[in-house]
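Exercise (ungraded).
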Amino acid sequence: MNNGEKRIIPLTEGLYTLPASPDEKPHLIGSRCINCNELYFPKKEKGLCIHCQQKTLEEVELSRQGKIASFTIVLQPPAGGFYHGPVPYAYGYVDLPEGVRVETQFTGNFNNLEIDGDVEMVIEKLYENAEGDEFVTYKFKPLKEQK
Amino acid sequence: MKPLNEMREVAVGGIGVTKWGFYENAEWFDFGSEAILNALKDAGMEWKDIQAAFCGSVYQGTGSGHQAIKEIGLTGIPIVNVENACSSCASAFRLAYQTVAAEIYDIVLAVGMEKMPRGPIPSTAFRPWELKLGFNVQPANYANIAVQYMEKTGATIEDFSMVTVKNRRHGTLNPNARFQKPVTLEEVLNSRLVATPLRLLHCCPLADGAAAFILCSKNKLKSKHKAVTVAASTLTSGVYGEGYPPADLTPSLKYPAAMSLTELSAKQAYEIADCGPENIDVVQAYDTMAPAELWDLEELGFCKPGEAPHLLREGVFDLNGRIPVNTDGGLMSRGHPLGATAGGQIYEIVLQLRGQAGPRQVKDAKVGLAHAMGAGPNSAVTIFKC
């Protein structure tokens, strides 16, 4: 099955679009309520808007750039054994221009993290398992580090 | 619905507590029953006087209250177990209060007890995809609130550290506290970094223990203690649009909450108790993390948003200050036995209003407030008068 070839596996399915070609960029997938205009990330699988309680959600691709609302650099591993990524790691919240706050890990140089700082979404490795398979996730990276 | 302030007055008949700490050779039913017996003795009542029991705990599993009560003796009364995260004991207390106020029972027991699991605890608030991304580090979730609070108010890491210093200083006067040694500002600022900007000594420690209360109608009071009555007991379990990372809540940018859950539970409590923050003589605020005490005091209405750090520096929240806060050392000194935590706060308020707080007694304390929060989310405000 593995054939010695490294597999790239999304840590969680359904959080972002997978680019079909190298020119396409990934997007986070959210939900928009066509009744009250509320936005959610991740998308609500049940299709129910938890603001207006109508089943009026549609799937939307979210903006790739936003501003840091808050961040912290974590120096101890989380409880429970579910997390296999590196420590220290950084996580917090990013506000996207259409009006939704997204919880995310940050990547790049943590010294470049600042509140209100511009960031862009990237897909990046979180960790590799013993077979060499790469588990990837969305993260946000300071825009000044993007090329 | 009959307004709560038109219902029968409810008095605190008895209070009981255990020392907070780590009990290697005892289980929750051991210290739960110990606290109940202490409350019974304090009330001057017989076990057969108790007509119903509401038992708060988080990690003890099915029928946890029954296990504690079995240690004293089953008497045919209803026993109801209440799991409401860090507000479990306040929620059990509220149910006991309501059944006495509604004249369903005259004498009711409320207890909170916890033997904390050893090692790190993953909260059930987080979904699998969030656990895989490591979003369940509670100090980090508080750090995300703290950095926004710093940005908005200009509060500094030194301000947060001074909360720990104050509460640990108060804890030296509490023989039941887990930590009874003071810490210096330097010790807090040099403790291990957990999640920037928060350090180990900005986090409350864990603890085991229990607190129990006997609530009754005034005509059933038997002890000689000064009568303390429950002026309000409110619970708010979340409002739409408010962000609260410890309970995995991201705020809505389109529909932000008009009032936070703490503000709402406080507003309801003040209305029912017919008083305002200006009437409160002693406060037990929710200091799971040091900075949380500051925004908690603001949301409870004791000062304007962003003012708490200045008032802290002026000593307003000290034992001998204008608004003494966490007079028993708070969670920082007592520790955090989740299902019993709110009980520790309530116990201190009743002790203060009775005038039995010894070296940490607040002079002329007549009205007191206890606030518990936690995952869920929940916010429970209990106000007492004497």
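Further reading is listed at the end of the chapter. For now, observe: Chain A has no helices and nine strands. The two ends of chain A are 36 Å apart (CA to CA).
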